[in-house]
Specification:
Number of strands: 18
Largest sheet: 7 strands, mixed
Structural class: alpha/beta
Oligomer: single chain
Order of helices and strands: EEEHEHHEHEEEEEHHEEEEEHHEHEE
Number of helices: 9
Shape: globular
Distance between the termini: 11 Å
Helix content: 10-25%
Low-confidence stretches: none
Strand order of the largest sheet: 6-5-4-3-2-1-18
């Protein structure tokens, strides 16, 4: 099975701490890297992760609070200093484009690569990126400014060839792709070997949803049905429920409610308030509702 992983670069919230960096993740899928949010210090975290800068092909920004985008211009500058030539796609709310253009004209005007900006509609769930192996769609969220999450979905893969059967029937290599596509095989004696005898079922398609920042949305689970892994902000515990409501954030328990109702495989918590020195209290609150919950932390890697 091809790798599908999430690399945590930062999982703190707005106020800097000595323990957590601002929001940023890399989604690694089938050899491609996608950056989701780019808080201050992201490029330093990329260095620590040992992920290759040059392999990042697209950046997805959820909203225009600084802890989710202050690191973007610095990272773009570093790409230029490293001699990047490949185009870079940026998906973000439309309001970022004029500011980003001004910054790039000032700091990144003589680099050898182009940035393609794609404005996203944060109010709609729609596919904004697609290639041969996956789609990325927006997830409308409710925050103090326009905000959306992103849902990475693998496209269904082809079944696995049964090598023992291929060898037994001496099927030419040239016919492998046809068999993967569903073709039967006819032997020289006229025997028809049904396709299901020649292949094993394909791996189940996996999916990863990133939801930060948002207040608790009772209907959000309807957009996330059956997701393999869900990252949902858990800025507060139930001891600060009123703060969560005031600032349009979620508690760990509320994140777990979304995960349970959506029937996801696992829940990742993050975007912790700086008031929590130990996030175990958030983990306990979430696991009371949804057992398969895990805390994120810088440099942690999770298999989707």
């Amino acid at each position: 099975m091809e790798p599908f992983r999430v690399h945590i670069l930062g999982c703190g919230s707005a106020l800097p701490t000595l323990h957590h960096n601002a929001s940023a993740q890399v989604v690694e899928i089938r050899g491609k890297l996608f950056l989701v949010d780019c808080g201050e210090g992201t490029q330093v975290q990329l260095r620590r992760s040992r992920l290759r800068f040059t392999k990042i092909s697209a950046v997805f920004i959820t909203h225009l609070h600084g802890d989710h985008c202050f690191g973007l211009i610095g990272m773009l500058s570093t790409f230029g200093l490293l001699g990047r030539t490949a185009r870079l796609a940026i998906y973000a709310p439309a309001a970022l484009e004029p500011m980003l253009k001004q910054q790039m004209q000032l700091f990144c005007h003589d680099f050898d690569y182009e940035v393609d900006f794609h404005a996203v509609d944060t109010t709609q769930q729609q596919v904004v990126y697609e290639d041969r192996s996956l789609t990325v769609e927006t997830i409308p969220l409710e925050h103090r400014m326009p905000c959306c999450g992103y849902l990475f979905r693998e496209k269904p893969s082809l079944p696995h060839i049964r090598r023992d059967m291929i060898d037994f029937y001496e099927i030419p290599t040239s016919q492998i792709n046809n068999i993967k596509a569903g073709a039967d095989w006819t032997t020289p004696d006229g025997e028809v070997v049904k396709n299901e005898r020649l292949v094993e079922p394909a791996d189940a398609a996996r999916s990863y949803a990133y939801c930060s920042d948002t207040r608790y949305i009772p209907t959000l689970h309807e957009r996330l049905k059956g997701v393999s892994t869900l990252y949902h902000e858990s800025t507060y515990g139930e001891d600060n429920l009123l703060m969560a409501q005031k600032y349009y954030h979620s508690t760990a328990r509320q994140a777990a409610l979304v995960a349970r109702e959506a029937g996801v495989g696992q829940l990742l918590l993050g975007h912790y308030s700086s008031r929590y020195e130990d996030e175990q209290v958030l983990l306990r609150e979430a696991q009371e509702v949804f057992e398969n919950t895990r805390l994120t932390d810088e440099n942690a890697i999770f298999d989707v």
